[in-house]
Amino acid sequence: MFRFTARTLAVSAAVFIAVARSAPASGVLINDAKSQPESLTVAPGGVLFVGSASTPFLYKVQPGSSKAEKFVDASGEGAGTFFFGMLADAASRTLWACQLTPVEGSSPVRRHTALRGFDLTTGAPKLRWNLPGENSTCNDFSLGPDKALYITDTANGKIFRLPAGASAAELYLEHRTLMGVDGITFLDGTLYVNNVIFNKLYRIPVDAAGKPGTPVDIWMDQPVKGPDGMRAAHGKLLLAENGSGRISALTVTGDKATVTVLKEGLNTPTAVEPAGDTLWIAERGAGSVVSVPLP
Q: Could you tell me the CATH number of the domain that includes residue 50?
């Protein structure tokens, strides 16, 4: 019988991460190299849904397929419409997406954005909630332990909350440190967000009444550049760094985080999605999604 020691486990983990960093990534081209897949999500059964930051389409990739099919067509929403965040909600059979449409003739460019909900099987529209204000950026979201959907508004430094079964979201938190808020996820019941402009990671504290407080700055032991899409798996935060071409795993202990690079050399990675033993990555600069083993 092999005896596992702390040193053995540490060496094994280091070897596994080294393999993951050097392993070739298998990819799927989303329409073409200019499709700019900003976000992606995996539904039950392994179906992959991918958004596009350059077209008004949501795409679907069947398990084992290398071809992306158009799933939602939002071309009737206005010139320049595109999509950011994507999330498959298995419980409600809903595909959540952030839809953005430029305001015609605006300078500098302003956008009206909406949280869209589509049937996970047919793509039929289920819900639309327009973010308030003359300029907004619905960017990403995460399902909380309370089954509510938490939504980031990058342009206005806000987090909104859509209760389960509701048709309209409510303001959950607005704070100056959230100007540039992007990725959002829950780890062990705690809400974390990042800031794509200032390269920051924050924990959102909640009091006994459930009211959020001032974001807590999490010190990272090495710099991250352009933190974007963020998910949680195996007790860690998984982070796409669009400015450095890396995917990193963050081990959070209190108000500190250890950064471990899982994959590098990517062309503007903007989203990550763990599914089983696979980590899916949206490689916006290459117009594709790639997968690597999930450590």
A: 2.130.10.10
Could you give phi then psi for residue 4, rounded to 5 degrees? -85, 130
Q: Tell me whether strands 256-263 and 219-220 are parallel, antiparallel or unpaired.
A: parallel
DSSP conformation letters of 2-22: PPP-HHHHHHHHHHHHHHHHH
User: For residue 236, how many other CB atoms are within 10 A of its CB?
Assistant: 20
**pLDDT tens digit string along 261-289?**
999 999 999 999 999 999 999 999 999 99
Cis peptide before 102 (omega within 30 of 0): no
Q: In this structure, are residues 204 and 217 in contact, taking their beta carbons and an 8 Å threshold?
A: no
Give the type of residue at 139. Answer: N
- What is the token pair recorded at 22? 């050097």
Classify residue 129: in a domain, yes or no: yes
Enumerate the β-bridge partners of residue 60: 49, 69
Task: State both tokens at 252.
Answer: 């959070």
pLDDT digit string, tens, across residues 76-125: 999 999 999 999 999 999 999 999 999 988 888 899 999 999 999 999 99
- Whether 19 is covered by a domain: the verdict is no
φ and ψ of 93, to 5 deg: 55, 45
Q: Looking at the domain assignment, is residue 182 inside a domain?
A: yes
Q: Which of 273, 201, 274 has the alpha carbon at shortest distance from 38?
A: 273
Distance CA(168)–CA(177), nearest Å, equals: 25
Closest CA to 29 of 56, 59, 55: 59
Q: Cα–Cα distance between 273 and 282 in angstroms, integer?
A: 9
Rg for the chain, CA atoms, rounded: 19
Note the pTM of the prediction, 2 decimals: 0.91
- The CA distance from 72 to 51, in Å, is 10
Domain of residue 257 covers 25-293
Residue 148 counted as domain residue? yes
Give the single-character DSSP code of 234: T
Count of structural domains, the chain:
1
